[in-house]
Each structure stands twice: as C-alpha cells, then as structure tokens.
Task: inverse folding
C-alpha cells in the first residue's frame, strides 16, 4: 500500500512537470525527463533530453563530423546544484554526398547527471535551454526551453519515476558505449596519420564486421577518410587519417569503437569507449592513398592501367630483379640465335607469368565464393607463408652466390624447371618471377587488388592479368624487338659477377620477410626462420660434399631431406603457435577468466542439478565480444555477483575458444551453433531456461529474484 | 596456391616507393582538403556577370574564398548581422580579392542562377569582388569544403594560408558574433603584415555543402 501511494504521488508530481517539459518543433519532439519523481537532497539522479527526430532527419553527436553541430544544453539550477556533461549514446554515421556526419536518427536520449544541493529546501527546479541542429539535406537550427519541478522527497530515498519513463532510461543506458575491456594505443606514421590498435587479441575475423572508430573530437582525426579496419594478431587495427587541426596529436586519442559481431543468435552491435595512449615506439606504415581513398572511384580502365603500370614497376623490385637479370643473362647467350626462337622464348615467359596471375585470380574468386566479402590482407595473414617465402629468397640467394648449381633433380620444381632450357624453362621462369614477386607486389597491387576484389569475376580476372602483362612486358618487348636486342651487352665473365652480386638483394629480401614474420609471430619467429635456414644450408652442403660431379649417395640424400623437412616443420610450430597464443590466458583480455566461476563439465552440471541446486551456465569464448560485454554489463556487476551469491547459484563457465567437443555437444542439444549461450537451471527443473544472447543486469536480477521468491 | 598470402603489414611496406606509382592516381578522387602551407589548388570559374576568374591570374594578390548557400542558417547569421559584408569591404579596401563561391549543385538548396546571385548581392548589400557560380561543386571539391560558409585564404604567392570557419563560435545566433574570435579577419591581418597565420586551420561550421548527389 505505501508503494502504491508513492507511485500515485509520483504520478501527480510528474503530471504538471511533463506538460512543461515537451517542446515540439518542425523536425524534433524534445522532452526533458527525470528518472526520479522526487529527489533526495545531495543525491545525484539522472535526467534525459529525449529527441524524437523526424524520419530521415538527424541530430548530432558530440563530434558532429565534417559539418553539423552537437546538441547543447545550458542548465539553470538553484545554487549548489550541479549538472554534469551529456553522456552521449553511440552515434551513427551519415554520409551525405561524401560529407561524413556523426549523429542520431529516429530517437536519441541525452543523459545528464544532476546533483541537487545537500541543503535543498522545497522542490528542485531544473531548467534547461537546449539548442540543436537537425538536418536532412538542409539544416535547421532549433531550440527549446524546458523545465522540471521535482519535489524533495520526504523519505530516505528519492522516488523513482513511473515505469514507462524508467524503461526509457533503461533503454538509453543500453545504447551507451561501454568502457573498452581492452587497452588501446596509437602511433603516428611519417605522414602524420594516426593508427589506433585496440588490443583485442584472438578475435575471429569472420564473425566481426563494420568496424568503425568515431573520434571523440574534431581535429586529430579526419572524419571524411575511409577507415579500413582489420583484425590482426595485435588486435583491431584502425588506420586513420590525420585531421585538419594544426596541433600536435594528443597524449590520448579518444573515441568510440563500433563493431558488429555475428553470433549464433544473430548480429549484435557493440560500442566501446576507447582511449588510445600515444605510443612513440609504434610508427605505422604510411597509408596507401590510392588503395584507401581511390579504390571506390577507380574505373575499370583506370584499374587496368594501374595494374599494367604496377606490373612494370615490379620488375625493379629487389626480389624480382635478380630473377629477371638471370633471365636476361641467359638471353644474352641466346643472342645471335634465330629470331623465331627468341620470340618463342619471350612468349613462353609471358605465358608463365599470365598463368600464375590467372591462378591467383582463381584463388581470389574461390575465396570470395566461399567466404563472401573479402577484405584484402585480412584473410591472408599467414606466418607459414612468410616463412616459406623467406626460405625461398634464401635458397635463391644461395644459388646466385654459387653455393650450389640448380640441377633438375635436386631443387624445387619451379626453379628446377626454370633452369631447363627452351620453352618450358622460359615458362617456369615466368612462374618463379611471380612467386618471388608476390610479397613485393602488395603495395603496388593494393589499389588494383582492392578494386579487383570488389568487382564481378571478369573484372577481377582482367585486372590481375593486366598486372601480369605489365610484369612480362619488358622481357616480351626485348624478345620481340631486334633493335633492343642489339643493345644487350655481350656475354662474358661479367655475367657471373653480376649473378653473384644479385644474391645480396635476395638475402636482403629474406631479412625483410623475416621481419614481416616477427610482426606476425613475435620474436620466436626469428629462431624458427634462421634455424630453418641453417638446416637448408646444411642440406645443400651435405648434397655438395665431394664436389659437383660426385654422385650423391642415398644416405646423404636422406640426411639432406631430413634437414629440409625439419626446416619445414618449423612452419607447423608457427601455425600452432599463432593459434594457441590467441587462446592462451594470461595476456590482456586474451583469455576467458574463470574468477568466481567453476569450469564447466557435463558431470558437474548434472550433479548440481540433481542435488537441487540452482545452476547458471555461461558458454563463452575469448573471441566472442558479445560474451565479454554480457559479462561486463550483466553477469559481473556488483549487484549481479551479490545476487548470484545470495541465491546460492552454482556458476559454471564453459570456454569454447578452441571448440571444445563437450561444449559443442551441449550447444547442439539446445539447437545453437555457437556462443554466447546462457543456461539457467532453477532448482528441481527438468530442463534449463535459455536466456537471450544479449543480457542486461535487470534480466539477471529478475531471474535470481524469482528464485528467491519461489524459495519463500 | 598460396602466393596471394601476404600479411597486411607487408602490404603496406615499401610504400615510399609505392607512393610514386600511386601518386599518378587521378586527383580529386575523394574529397580531401589541401594542406596549409602548400600551393592552393588552382581553379577557373565564371562569375555571375559572365567574367572568368582564374586563381593563376590572381598571383600577387591575397585571395579569400567563401563558400555560400544563401538559405543556410549559418550563412544567414553572418549576412543578417552584416559581419560578412563588413569583412568583404574591409578586405577590398586592403586590396584583397574576395570571391564568394556558390557551390550548391543544381537542384540543391542554395543553388543560384547568375541573376539570382546578383539580386542576392544587391539585397544583402554584399561586396565581394565576384560571386563565382560553381553548380558542379568543382571548386568546393578541390578545396575539400564541407560546409557553408567554409573560408579559405590564399596568399600572394598562391599558397593556402588559412582554412576553416569564419569565426570561433559555432552557433546560428547572430548575437554570438561580437563574442567570437573572427578567424578570417585576424588571419588576413597577419597575412597582409607578412606574418605567419597563428590559427591557420580551424573547425568550419555551418550547413553541409550541397554536392551533386551522384557523387555519393
């Protein structure tokens, strides 16, 4: 009964206040709401300016982006009362003719915490002058004056507002970004562009999309530039463009990180407040202008031209040039031979290059068909590949140095065939050129590839073939044009010297590849890579014992093969290493925390259920952001922890990071394909209740309180 | 076939060399704003009286660009309060060429014909050297203009020395003008005195610039 009276009082008190607190303009209905009906002196409470925005129109976030203005509220409060700054909901991105704005559509609730004076006597009058800019294509500044009169409660606590209003506040809180569970840092490239790394390690690329960083203020970051966020072993990497403010970048770069996670139960949008610390040691690579900004507007013809150009430039890369120089030297020997033969040679080489690029196109198309959207780089971060390429560079380097000669029987297929004379040899030189070129191609290919990936299949193939054509072009031209051939120097001892010299760019390329590897695996990669190289060198030495002409015994072959296999085995280590590093607990936010929870097992669950205990099961994974957020906002809040404890709930947590088979079976039984999954067994129940995949604290508390009531 | 497998880091390496190839990309693919201290993007435009203006011909003079959209409340703020007209007159008196650029695309808010532009100049008692008609938003795009009014100052050597807002208080209320720091006026004084501009890049505020819709 006293509760009912309080409610009635609250409604009476709220009645006249509501009438004064609504402003209807042409485009926005704005209302000032209070979460409490009566206030307690000195005790903070929340008010909210709720904007209901005309369809298709929008108001602005604290950083409005390229144009627009944030909503401003000027408070008039009695002496001693304070109003804190607006707590902003998660913004949306609006792109209007290339101008990017951050703001809200349909509805926005701007929360503000107000503290009444401790010596409040009589009602608290909260008056606000608010102005906001509302835009569709055109912009209209609007304003409103609001007033709430909140009686000071007689009781010990403030009285809550009616349930409908409280629901609005509850909903508003759910659309606030939560504090990032991961630390973040940022570095500045030589061109002044910042890159933020949110150290969320071990996330799964295929479940996370639409990553966007909303910078908290105008200046340090340009809102207009596209952000090509990616997931790497370091976490979420956000390459940004520096903004227009001519000031030094701040010690901390703040913003809101938004992403969408695909879970078994559907897509979940999450938002985190991030404050990235300036890390002077981190200098991100400069941004590929063409790749990032241009790809969208690149026409097919332009893309083809770039592809040919890119291919041409590839010839000069330190990793490709030696191969070509070898080819050119061989060509010089051919000088004087029939023109037809030279032409055939050039054409075969071109065919080899084009076939390789054609194969690449096929891979791209196949990936796209199976994965759906492909983001360049993202799917292709394999330490194994880096290591193999490093080995290849090293081996080609050894060959150029003259440590061993390539014979068809001993070396890898590509090189072996490449060393063969005639048309087949020319064809495989083309293939080899492409293989060694790929790591160097990336920067040049980025623009064209970005374009290729977003195009229908024929365009994808055309772009890649155009790049191959560019790569083959110089040699093709040489073989076709006698005038150019006459410019070639005569063969002689210089050819050997040149060849030996060219080993050095090859070694340098290997060093670079190892550096790339360490970026992927950490310093352990160096041990595997250099160890593997020693084994390869050892294998070469074993095979060459006794000189070039001596026959190689099977035993020596066996030893060499073992050494090479051991070198290759390092790749397995790397692969495992990367996978376990991601799920290995200990690192920041890299694993599932079991603090306060028991490890799930079906036996333990059955046993507790049979004993009539309430059981809560949380199936989670280190890469599941929604799971993490649920823990933060619902399961691990002080109130929830207390309620779990009071109700004597057995809390079990299952870690599905590595697709544990026992858990997979449970998921299947309840018809789920993945985590999060929350099961709640009431005492004596014969089946668990499946809770929604997005939890709130209120949900948990109400489940647990129903338990308490049932007990009584 | 694994030879496509390249780590993202390696994708970005060697960009110093890569930049050379990429710099050949057609300009103005995206709206990016030019840098302070660099040569201002050249443009040629026709004014409301049919006269052609080219930035290249204005070497030796300080030039102000003002993007405009007469129906935008923020443009109106500065015209109703005569702030814009006063600054145009002051600039003219000091030999500065003030070009108002009507960059709203055809069919969008703020698009004007030559006659309308002249009527507006008259009715608002404005005093720019000329009103350039930019219905394809070419000039605005070259300068990365995002709002109206978006202000730019180009010095006598053709270098961009200021970009940003007309003043420091981003509101639509004319009563804020006397309280605001008038960035353009301050920057012009510094430029004419041969000094570097203290606040060379500020946040422009106003209505979003009405670019042609196909460009989205």
Result:
């Amino acid at each position: 009964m006293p509760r009912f009276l309080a409610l009635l009082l609250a409604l009476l008190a709220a009645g006249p206040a509501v009438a004064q607190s609504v402003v209807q303009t042409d485009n926005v209905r704005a209302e000032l709401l209070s979460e409490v009906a009566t206030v307690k002196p000195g005790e903070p409470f929340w008010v909210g300016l709720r904007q209901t925005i005309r369809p298709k129109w929008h108001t602005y976030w604290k950083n409005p982006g390229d144009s627009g203005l944030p909503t401003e509220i000027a408070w008039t409060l009695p002496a001693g009362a304070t109003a804190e700054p607006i707590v902003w909901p998660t913004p949306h991105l609006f792109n209007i003719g290339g101008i990017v704005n951050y703001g809200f559509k349909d509805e926005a609730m701007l929360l503000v915490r107000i503290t009444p004076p401790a010596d409040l006597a009589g009602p608290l009058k909260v008056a606000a002058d608010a102005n906001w800019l509302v835009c569709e294509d055109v912009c209209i500044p609007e304003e409103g004056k609001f007033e709430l009169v909140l009686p000071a409660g007689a009781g010990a606590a403030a009285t809550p507002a009616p349930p409908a209003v409280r629901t609005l506040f509850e909903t508003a809180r759910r659309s606030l970004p939560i504090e990032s569970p991961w630390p973040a840092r940022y570095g500045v490239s030589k061109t002044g562009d910042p890159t933020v790394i949110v150290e969320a390690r071990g996330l799964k690329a295929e479940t996370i999309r639409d990553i966007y960083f909303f910078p908290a203020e105008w200046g340090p970051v340009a809102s207009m530039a596209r952000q090509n966020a990616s997931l790497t072993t370091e976490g979420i990497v956000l390459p940004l463009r520096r903004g227009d403010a001519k000031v030094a970048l701040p010690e901390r770069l703040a913003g809101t990180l938004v992403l969408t996670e695909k879970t078994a139960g559907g897509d979940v949008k999450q938002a985190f407040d991030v404050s990235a610390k300036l890390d002077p040691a981190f200098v991100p690579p400069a941004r590929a202008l063409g790749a990032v900004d241009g790809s969208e507007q690149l026409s097919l013809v332009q893309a083809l031209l770039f592809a040919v150009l890119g291919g041409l430039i590839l010839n000069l890369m330190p990793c490709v040039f030696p191969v070509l120089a070898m080819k050119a030297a061989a060509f010089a020997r051919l000088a004087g031979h029939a023109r037809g033969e030279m032409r055939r040679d050039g054409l075969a080489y071109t065919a080899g290059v084009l076939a390789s690029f054609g194969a690449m196109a096929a891979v791209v198309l196949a990936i796209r068909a199976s994965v759906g959207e492909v983001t360049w780089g993202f799917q292709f971060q394999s330490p194994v590949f880096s290591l193999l390429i490093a080995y290849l560079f090293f081996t080609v380097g050894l060959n150029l140095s003259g440590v061993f000669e390539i014979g068809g029987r001993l070396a890898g297929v590509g090189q072996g065939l490449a060393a063969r004379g005639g048309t087949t040899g020319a064809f495989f030189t083309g293939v080899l050129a492409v293989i060694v070129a790929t790591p160097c191609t990336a920067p040049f290919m980025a623009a064209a590839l970005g374009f290729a990936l977003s195009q229908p299949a024929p365009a994808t193939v055309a772009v890649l073939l155009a790049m191959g054509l560019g790569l083959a072009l110089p040699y093709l031209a040489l073989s076709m044009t006698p005038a150019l051939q006459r410019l070639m120097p005569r063969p002689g001892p210089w050819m050997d010297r040149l060849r030996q010299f060219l080993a050095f760019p090859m070694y340098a390329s290997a060093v670079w590849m190892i550096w790339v590897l360490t970026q992927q695996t950490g310093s352990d990669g160096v041990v595997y890579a250099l160890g593997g190289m020693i084994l390869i060198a050892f294998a070469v030495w074993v095979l060459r014992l006794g000189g070039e002409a001596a026959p190689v015994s099977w035993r020596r072959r066996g030893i060499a093969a073992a050494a090479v296999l051991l070198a290759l085995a390092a790749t397995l280590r790397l692969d495992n290493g990367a996978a376990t590093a991601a799920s290995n607990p200990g690192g920041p936010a890299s694993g599932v925390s079991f603090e306060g929870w028991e490890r799930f097992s079906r036996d333990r669950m059955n046993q507790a259920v049979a004993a009539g205990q309430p059981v809560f099961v949380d199936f989670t994974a280190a890469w599941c952001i929604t799971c993490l957020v649920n823990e933060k906002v619902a399961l691990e809040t002080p109130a929830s922890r207390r309620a779990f404890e009071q109700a004597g709930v057995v809390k079990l947590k299952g870690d599905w990071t590595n697709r544990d088979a026992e858990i997979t079976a449970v998921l299947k039984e309840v018809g789920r394909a993945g985590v999060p999954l929350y099961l709640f067994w009431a005492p004596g129940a014969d089946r668990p209740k499946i809770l929604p995949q997005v939890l709130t604290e209120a949900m948990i508390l109400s489940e647990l309180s129903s338990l308490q009531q049932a007990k009584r | 076939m694994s030879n496509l497998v390249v780590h993202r880091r390696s994708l970005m390496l060697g960009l110093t060399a890569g930049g050379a190839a990429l710099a050949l990309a057609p300009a103005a693919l995206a709206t990016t704003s030019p840098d302070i201290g660099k040569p201002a993007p050249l443009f040629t435009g026709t004014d409301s009286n049919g006269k052609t203006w080219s930035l290249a011909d204005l070497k030796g003079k300080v030039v102000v660009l003002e993007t405009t959209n007469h129906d935008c409340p923020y443009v109106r703020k500065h015209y109703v309060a005569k702030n814009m007209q006063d600054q145009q007159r002051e600039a003219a008196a000091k030999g500065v060429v003030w070009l108002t650029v009507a960059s709203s695309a055809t069919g969008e808010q703020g698009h004007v014909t030559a006659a309308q532009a002249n009527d507006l100049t008259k009715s608002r008692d404005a005093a720019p050297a000329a009103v350039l008609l930019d219905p394809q938003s070419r000039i605005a795009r070259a300068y990365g203009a995002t709002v109206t009014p978006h202000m730019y100052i180009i010095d006598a050597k053709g270098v961009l020395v200021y970009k940003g807002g007309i003043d420091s208080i981003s509101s639509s209320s004319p009563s804020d003008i006397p309280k605001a720091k008038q960035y353009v006026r301050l920057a012009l004084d510094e430029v004419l005195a041969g000094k570097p501009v203290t606040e060379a890049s500020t946040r422009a505020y106003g209505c979003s610039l009405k670019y042609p819709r196909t460009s989205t």
Notes: Chain A has four domains: 2-170, 184-284, 300-580, 598-711. Residues 266 and 346 of chain A are 55 Å apart (CA to CA). The two ends of chain A are 21 Å apart (CA to CA).
